[in-house]
User: Which sequence fits this backbone?
């Protein structure tokens, strides 16, 4: 049976992974501003949870510049995509079984 | 970790919300590019008409042709990079053109009425689309349409230049604003 993922289950991290995992199952790349808009998080909160996901090797971050402005690109790693998919499958299995794990 | 049914449902609902927001954001991005392109073209069209009033028909033929080509190119680009682009938008634009052409022909409008009618028609289209696509479209559509109508009533000389600023400029500003949404 699939298991819950403690790291992904936190609401904001779940939203981050949901955004990064969207697309054709291969994930999407986001800059910080767009990720903030899609997840409706504050700068500090988003930054902290991005760090947690990066430490877990669920996402990778590319820091650079666009013109003179610093730019941070965030994308899910294959490991992160897999973990997210398994966590969603776990959530669905909970609802289908209708019982506590 | 213990997750009950209610918590699992809440998490899946959270995911659905993010996916819906993402779809709207992707759509706004594609639409914003088109708004900026159309805004620049339309502003150029009005300025050209202000200078060469007797060539208005040819000018708008070129402007509309370029705009439709840009709309198709944007659709193809977004499809290539894997973002869904609703081709019904292109059909809707063509239907609006057909409706506008029919009204212009039957209404026997003068040049001033024609200049005001076309952008107002398309702004109503934006407002209508906004009922499904998001409030930003309603605000842009109704706001710019009202400004054009006010110009039609109260601005006599330089009406074409006013339209370049309000219609073209309005679309560019709205497009840039939507890009941040």
Assistant:
């Amino acid at each position: 049976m699939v298991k819950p993922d403690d790291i992904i289950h936190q609401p904001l991290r779940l939203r981050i992974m949901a955004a990064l995992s969207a697309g054709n199952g291969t994930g999407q790349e986001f800059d910080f501003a767009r990720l903030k808009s899609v997840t409706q998080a504050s700068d500090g909160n988003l930054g902290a949870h991005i760090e947690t996901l990066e430490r877990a090797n669920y996402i990778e971050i590319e820091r650079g510049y666009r013109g003179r402005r610093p730019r941070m690109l965030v994308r899910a790693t294959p490991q992160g995509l897999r973990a997210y998919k398994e966590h969603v499958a776990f959530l669905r299995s909970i609802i289908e079984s209708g019982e506590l794990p | 970790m213990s997750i009950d049914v209610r918590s699992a449902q809440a998490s899946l609902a959270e995911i659905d919300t993010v996916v819906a927001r993402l779809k709207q954001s992707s759509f706004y991005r594609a639409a914003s590019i088109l708004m900026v392109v159309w805004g620049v073209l339309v502003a150029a069209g009005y300025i050209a008409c202000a200078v060469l009033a007797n060539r208005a028909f040819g000018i708008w033929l070129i402007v509309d042709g370029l705009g439709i080509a840009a709309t198709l190119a944007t659709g193809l680009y977004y499809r290539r990079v894997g973002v869904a682009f609703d081709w019904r938008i292109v059909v809707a634009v063509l239907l609006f053109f057909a409706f506008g052409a029919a009204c212009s022909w039957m209404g026997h409008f003068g040049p001033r009425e024609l200049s005001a009618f076309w952008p107002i028609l398309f702004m109503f289209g934006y407002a209508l689309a906004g009922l499904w696509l998001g409030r930003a479209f309603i605000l842009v559509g109704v706001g710019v349409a009202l400004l054009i109508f006010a110009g039609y009533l109260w601005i006599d000389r330089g009406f074409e230049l006013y339209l370049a600023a309000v219609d073209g400029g309005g679309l560019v500003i709205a497009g840039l604003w939507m890009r941040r949404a």
In short: DSSP finds six helices and no strands in chain B. Chain B has a mean pLDDT of 87. Residues 7-179 of chain B form one domain.
